[in-house]
Every structure is written in C-alpha cells, then in structure tokens.
Design brief:
The chain is α+β, with helices and mostly antiparallel strands and 153 residues long. The protein is elongated and about 80 Å long.
Length: 153
C-alpha cells in the first residue's frame, strides 16, 4: 500500500469520526432545547405534543386553585387573547401571584392541560420575562407599566 493511499484512508477515517462527533453533539443538544410558546400559539396547535417546552404569560386573576393538604395547584396562563390551564405539583416560587408574569416548563397533557415540571415567576415589581412581554405585545395587547427595556408604554 502506497503512502498516498494511507493518507487518504486516514483523512476518510478522520472525516467519518468528525461527522459522527457532530451528529452526537447536535443530537444531545436537540434533546435539551426548550422552546417558548405563548397561550395563543399553544391554542393554535403550534406547540409540540410530546416534547418539553415553555409556556409564558400572565396568571389569570381568580384562576389559582389549590388542592387542600397537597402541593397540587391549577392555574390559568393567558396572553390576553387565549388561555391555557396549567397543572403543577410542587412548591410555587414566593413571587408567584395572580396577574403577574410567569413561565412554566413542561408538556401538554392529553386533556389539553399543560403539566408543568417547573414554574418561574418574575423577580421584582418592574420585571416581566422578555418572552412574556413579546407574547403579550404580539397578541396586540398593551402592557401597562414598565417592561423589559425599562421604558413605559
């Protein structure tokens, strides 16, 4: 076997190894991606059915229902155009409140209820998660008070 053939074989093996490594990295990253959807997009069926994603909006006033003696809580997330019911079992963040911005991570259940694995709330009175603010603005609803850029509308 000539030296030229050996070099060609090494290049081919190297390219195959690089291709395999790229595939494995991209496959691992895809499994960890968590896309954001507004309640309107979820209602339109744009959200994945069997994949974890984030749902963001405002907690609808009067929608928080807790089961007595358990950590289970149901609430409704809205972008002022559409609403999605969320079921969560666990301790909610201290800043979780009706009328405030929230992002829940989980997946849609078979009964069109979003089953959250994690709930994130705003961190102070002037902050709204950028995804929530954008979803509310794209739904054509104005946001009263400060928003992520610090400006008022």
């Amino acid at each position: 076997m000539k030296a030229r053939h050996k070099r060609f074989g090494i290049v081919i093996v190297g390219l195959a190894a690089l291709g395999l490594a790229t595939y494995l990295v991209l496959n691992a990253l895809e499994g960890n991606l968590s896309y954001f959807f507004s309640p309107s997009e979820v209602a339109e069926g744009k959200a994945p059915q069997n994949h974890i994603f984030r749902l963001g909006g405002l907690v609808e006033a009067g929608s928080v229902k807790r089961e007595e003696g358990e950590l289970k809580v149901n609430f409704v997330v809205t972008d002022m155009a559409k609403s999605v019911t969320v079921a969560y079992s666990g301790i909610l963040p201290d800043l979780f409140a009706e009328g405030q911005g929230v992002i829940a991570q989980g997946r849609m259940g078979p009964d069109k209820v979003f089953v959250a694995e994690e709930v994130l709330a705003k961190h102070d009175e002037t902050y709204m998660p950028p995804e929530v603010a954008a979803a509310l603005e794209s739904a054509g609803k104005s946001i009263d008070g400060p928003h992520p850029g610090g400006n008022t509308k």
